[in-house]
Structures are given as structure tokens and as C-alpha cells.
Design goal:
The structure is a single chain. The chain is mainly alpha-helical and 209 residues long. The chain has two domains: 73 residues, Winged helix-like DNA-binding domain superfamily/Winged helix DNA-binding domain (Arc Repressor Mutant, subunit A); 118 residues, no CATH class. It has eight helices and two strands. The longest helix has 28 residues.
Length: 209
Amino acid sequence: MPFDSEPELLVLHSIRIQGMAPTAAIAGRFSLDATAVQELLLDFEAYGWVYRVAFADLSGWTLSESGKQEGQRRLAAELDLAGARDQVTASHTDFVQLNGRFLTLVTKWQIRPTPRDAWAANDHQDWAWDEDVLKSLTNISRRLRPVGDALSAALARFAGYSDRFDKALGRVDKGERSFVDQPKIDSCHTVWFELHEDLLATLGMERGG
């Protein structure tokens, strides 16, 4: 059976992988009760672990440095308690092997060189170019599935990444091109970024590690 995380850890971790989020998004990330999450956030605010931020039309909660450290401490303790360190480490290695290819594909989706401009924005008028990217993303999705399955078999909170990635691809296939790389929606890039951050946080690594 996969190991179930404590709600306190899940609240801190939800903020970590989303960067900044309102209460509803924090609760929704791991299907937690919103009222209980709000109470925990107020406690964490009193401890100095989280604080509210707002800019432009966005507002929500984010982690302080001490909150990030507390989350790291809890994640490390959970990893050892669950006996999942070896599996998560192996899955991170597998993910890294896919990461470079994925980032290259996102760049190819965003940029299509022309004779006059090597960094010309992709206007998505070249069907063959886009189709090649999407076929490659589908292949990435197939290779991501066993990584996600292994992680969710060890720690329940890792469940859902592969399904979310496939759902985003499905929306692209229906013509919603923004679901390849647009932020603030559950695009392929958003899902990938969150999984990467989840793995790094769980293993106590910094991005680029």
C-alpha cells in the first residue's frame, strides 16, 4: 500500500509545488477539506511558515524560508518513515532522462526558426512541425507513465501526474493549443514543472539538481 502523508505536510507541500496559491487551490491539490486547510494556514502563518502575497490580479499563500525548511524536514522524515527513498531516487533519475527532451519539445513548440530569424515565434501555421512535436510529447507521456506509477505506489501524494499530463495532451488534440505550455492552467508544462518540483523537494534537492 502507498504511504499516506499527513495533512500538515500536504498543505505545506501543496504551496511548495504550486509556488503561490489561494486556499482553494491548496486544498484542491490533494483533495483536502478547505475549512481544515484554512485553519492550518492560519496556524502556519502564526509560526512564520507561510504568508499572504498579492500582485496584479493574483493573490494567495506562499512559503517563507522557514516554512520551506519545515517542509523539507517533514518530507525527509516521511521519506524515511515510508521506506521510499530508494524508489523516489530511482524515479528522479528516470525523470531526469526525460526532462531534457521535454524541455526541447516545449522550446520547439514555442519557436520555429526561419531563414531570417533563428528565434522566430512559432505561429502554428506549419501543421507538420506541430504534429511532430505532439507525436513526441505523446511518446514522452508513455515513458512518464511508469515513472508516475512507481512514485504513486510508494507515496500516495504522487498520484495523478501521468493522468493530468495525458488530459492536457487530449485537450491539445482537440485544438486547445495553450494546454502544451501555458502557465496558470493544467497544461503539459504546468504538470511537468510541478512533478519536477515535487521530486526535488522530496529529495531535498535544488532545481538543476
